[in-house]
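User: quick one - fold this with uridine-5'-diphosphate-glucose bound?
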Amino acid sequence: MKSYSIAVIGTGYVGLVSGTCFAYVGHRVVCCDVDASKIERLKRCEIPIYEPGLDKLVAEGMQQGRLRFTTDIDAAIQAADVIFIAVGTPMSQTGEANLDYVQQAARMIGTVINGYKVIVTKSTVPVGTGRLIAQWIGEASHNQYSFDIVSNPEFLREGSAVYDCLNMERTVIGADRPEAAAIIAELHEPFGTVVLKTSIESAELIKYASNCFLAMKISYINSIANLCDQLGADVDEVAQGMGLDSRIGHRFLQAGIGYGGSCFPKDTYALRHLTKEAGCSFSILEAVIDTNEQQRLIVIDKLKQSLGTLAGKRIAVLGLAFKPNTNDVRDAPSLTIIPKLLEAGAIVRAYDPVAAEEARHVLGDQVVYMPSVQDTVMYCDACLILTEWEQIVESDWEKLHSSMSRPLLIDGRNCWSAEKMAELGFEYISMGRPFVPQRETSLRVPV
Ligand SMILES: NC(=O)c1ccc[n+]([C@@H]2O[C@H](COP(=O)([O-])OP(=O)(O)OC[C@H]3O[C@@H](n4cnc5c(N)ncnc54)[C@H](O)[C@@H]3O)[C@@H](O)[C@H]2O)c1
Ligand SMILES: O=c1ccn([C@@H]2O[C@H](COP(=O)(O)OP(=O)(O)O[C@H]3O[C@H](CO)[C@@H](O)[C@H](O)[C@H]3O)[C@@H](O)[C@H]2O)c(=O)[nH]1
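Assistant: Sure. Structure tokens for the protein plus uridine-5'-diphosphate-glucose:
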């Protein structure tokens, strides 16, 4: 296998994890960022994100001299055969993807380019961006050097990013010239993954189409869950029955408070914007977005149905990250739900094993951040589960029950069986599963 020299621009989840994994399989990788403090931390082998397994791989890559971190982006670009653009493409006011960082990165490349390079877009970008990147680089370099643009979208998930990258199910390579596509295919050889070569436009759309399809599955099952609540069916049983059909499959049919995170919310909006600009209609996508936004608020309705007014009520919120195994709170349901609780006059105590600090930056100090599940639920009038962290789900709920003022548990992630929680004496309410009323009996040991 040929070892390539790769410069990665942007050390967020994608840049850091993919850069580290490409170094792990034998390439020479320099990860660059404009954020000097982040690079300083990385040089000391301090990982700025919570991502299981990443610290070990970064340390190994650095020890073997295959992985470096720098703010000297110009030098990294000049020394590289292949450049990954992995900067953020956040949602703008209008819902479209903001390409400012991508444009900055392209112009930086164009300003210092010193020979043929393959420039790979790993960021999620609207269809047509590959052509724009070529234009920006061409303008900045006065077309002095030849280069190729390749769209190679990233499909890793936060929380299992290292595993996803090392075990990627496919890589999509969108390029104009087969020679450029061949280089990127060779780069991926050590991963032994399925390679799909497409046009740049198709590759760009594959990323949005995939994310929005997964978001659609979640909104679909959440709508079924809401129907289950009305009709007395159990959404877990329904999802199980649906998933047994191999054309449907079991994955992404976990009902709850809906999707959050740095990708699905912004990518559904970005595709909606792209659709409108193209003069097309995509009403399913509209419904996916609306359903998800409503879904978050259902736990508040459920809480009000049990407690009446929330004013002065002590509510324990367990889980702030948008999913377990990450400290990312970008567009986490907790950030919508907690302000609504506060608005209604509730007193909110919250716990997350790793994301409390990140949540505090957004929510401020109106929320009391607690060090443990036990401290959070003590004397509360109700407890809301927003993220299914193992530390939360596996807590000793028999013990926790006795410390709550009222053992009302609203499970936004369907973590437990209603029967088991009722046996423990909880008033247990979940999403789309039959409500089992509190039993007369006191605590029983769970089976
Ligand atoms: N987070 C994920 O799980 C994930 C998965 C697949 C795809 N994506 C896509 O990948 C892209 C990056 O996402 P992320 O979550 O890693 O982003 P992020 O926002 O966490 O990190 C982006 C990094 O790029 C740096 N940066 C910005 N402009 C720069 C420049 N001109 N030069 C050097 N560095 C610069 C920032 O300082 C930051 O550290 C987005 O388009 C996202 O949609 C993300
Ligand atoms: O059945 C499910 C599955 C997920 N979720 C929620 O959906 C969100 C996203 O989850 P997940 O897809 O596991 O995490 P991400 O890290 O956001 O990864 C998605 O977004 C990335 C960024 O584009 C893509 O690379 C990944 O392929 C895609 O799965 C989270 O809030 C989950 O709680 C559900 O509610 N029900």
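One thing worth noting: The pocket of nicotinamide-adenine-dinucleotide (ligand 1) is lined by residues 9-15, 32-35, 38, 73, 86-89, 101, 104-105, 108, 123-124, 154, 156, 158, 262-263 (CB under 6 Å).
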